[in-house]
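WARN no homologs supplied; continuing
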Amino acid sequence: MTADTPSLPAHFDPDAIEPGLVERWVETGVGRADVSSSKPKFSLVMPPPNVTGQLHIGHALDMTLQDVVVRHKRQRGFDVLWLPGTDHASIATHFVVERELAKTGETRFTLGREAFLRRADAWRDQSAGAIQSQLRRLGCTPDWSRERFTLDPVITRAVMRVFVAMHREGLITRGTRLVNWDPKFRTAVSDLEVETREVEGHLWHIRYPLAEDPLRHIVVATTRPETLFGDQAVAVNAADERYRDLIGKLVTLPLTGRAIPIIADEHADPEQGSGAVKITPAHDFNDHAVGLRHGLVALDVMTPDGRMNDAVPEPFRGLDRFDARARAVEALEALGLIEKIEPKLIAQPFGDRSQVVLEPRITDQWFMRTDGLAAAAAKAVHSGETRFVPGNWANVFHRWMDNIEPWCISRQLWYGHQIPAWYGEDGEIFVAETAEEAGEAARAHYGRAVSLTRDPDILDTWFSSALWPFATLGWPDETPELARYYPQDLLVTGFDIIFFWVARMMMQSIHFEGPAPFRDIYIHGLVRDAQGQKMSKTKGNVIDPLELIAQYGADATRMTMMTLCGHGQDIRMSPDAVRPARLFANKLWNAARFAAFNRCFEAAVPLPAAPSNAIDAWIVAELAAVARATLAALDDYRFSDAATGLQAFVRDTFCDWYVEFSKISMNGGDAAAAAETRAVVGWCLKTILQLLNPFMPFVTEALWDGCAAGEAITAAQLPDFEALPVRAEASTQVEGVIALVTRIRSVRSELKVAPGKPVPLLVSAPSDAARALLDRFGPHIRRLANLSGIDVAGDAPEGSVRLAVGGTDYLLPLGDVVDFAKEKARLEKELAKNGKDAGSIAARLGDEAFVAKAKPDVIALNRARLVAFEAERERLVAALALL
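OK structure emitted
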């Protein structure tokens, strides 16, 4: 093979090799699990992205982590099932489809349920393949033949079975409670779908006159005066002496004339505002709790779309809630009941899809009791059956489980799993898996056939997602897949859905299958921008992984995320951060071309069991050590340790040192030594490609195909790294050579000796070990340090620089190539400027006013610059010491 071999082009081009390999992996079924395999199994489920979604940088991290694990496990001889799928994402799909309808002036309500569902299915069919193709472009290799969708018949059957079973057990019930309500979509939403933002608002201080003495009043403060129509009481603290005599008396509710009581409740804080608060049980979560304690009526004063209903005075009926707010304030001011208005920063809940302000609203919903389920899930983590990685997330999990509330599982949407409950004409509820079963139950109840109406609501998307670990494997049937691959060995996900998804999978899986669904749960951090800020479209700092792939390639994108993915840490990402990984791929490519040019991959040249050449023995031992460390780190999910350690070895040890050493051996006069080195170079590169393959599957497979003929890289067995020989004396000698060459190069650089200018090296009173080192590795030292010769000397010639390396003094006579006086003056000038610049930055950072006013990224930049100046000062001082 030569450097011009067509299978290994002169330059690495990701665009030329990556798409073709994606097609190959799909066609050959890379990633396909074998349920009948005798290999040990390793299984995990893919957190299902939204079917309408696009690959974002968080997805890219999450999926790359999983793909690295499954490729690593396949290398280690496991039968791996990585089961992919997508989520129907009810509210997200509604958002997309209703946005399209709005362009023609339609809504889902004017369209009707059946027509809307046809539109949603059409949208799903149109967009379903997008996220899959993007994951393939990233290099992900799940078992696509087993892909699931949360509305697939097999999943729907499992959802219906679970709902009915839990209803029969009394764990699912219907009741009237306060929920987060989205007025745009007219549905309850989960806490996960709530975005809390700080917005500028007002605090209105309103006088509520005493019913028995209208000249007296009690002042309450509110940010939502439009809800006063639903007030049922005014609360004060029993310990607040200002209002103790008013407890039990009545006030007249402004604008309504309705009398409501003054009650004592700990919710009222004497230190906050006036110490008196209005209680509106139907429109505030805290007020609702107060209302339950005192038996207050929850009066809903709004319609599902956020307008004032018929429970309010006629002038306000039909007004949008915010228009009603303005009208109420005007009316209160006209009556002289506004004491004062203050500007206030308000934490306000918005729907993450609708982008409208959410309302607490009292509605009839379906709820799931979770206390017993949560206890079982917590026990699995306490006992060690399930392990969180990093371990601190177990504490977060337990806090949530200890404080869990009933789960509102119904949504007033159409796209999703319709609740399997039917109503008789008298309101009797029949819960069954099918309409036929519900009809039979109704016939048994009424003694005759009756007409039933199905509950129009659907289940929260998280309800079906909670069944993902076992429903995707065919449950409730006892399938071979369920028997082999449940429970799963790993779940990879972000911390933001530990409660909303992970906890619910734990609860449901344990309840219906027994064992906890996961052995390990790996929690990764967020991907932030280079300044540590959370990415958002409004900030303009969002990074599109597909753009990174287009610019640098999928391998570089993957490797960058893995090197940055420290245990339990957020990732600071920028497009520029990917460039070093792209350069690393180039370096690997060029090393493979060098090996091919020198016939290092020829099968006729085997790897010696114990290389006789010290340098060859050293690199084999070094590679074995880094391989063991890499594999151990991957087994422990220490992705950054694995990626950075392996990358550093390939870049710094193999390419920068061993490849240069090998050129000398292969071009020397010893044919046997040259043959051994070629074999070692070829073996090392093949092994490096295997170790790098989970991180950089494209470039490694392309190089493997071009250089290492034989079985596919995904099927090749890793060497037994424990059995490889270690020659300690060889490693010690080679490390001594590297230390000496590095020191000489450093001096040449510091004193600006021209790179192409050979200089002599003198040895002062060398020890026997030093003589042996120079005798054995003299050619390597001369070439790599660009020396004109190596001699033993007594006295140091004038203009020499003394180096102490490994207990031996070396001299570099540089008087003929370096003007010492001029060089000293240059360094002193640079040192003075360094001190001035560093002092200026230190003074700035020491200025409390500057630190208080400056943005965090500006302070961080100045601190980084100060550290850089300090490092440069150390370098300059060391260079002056040489003179």
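The two ends are 50 Å apart (CA to CA).
OK
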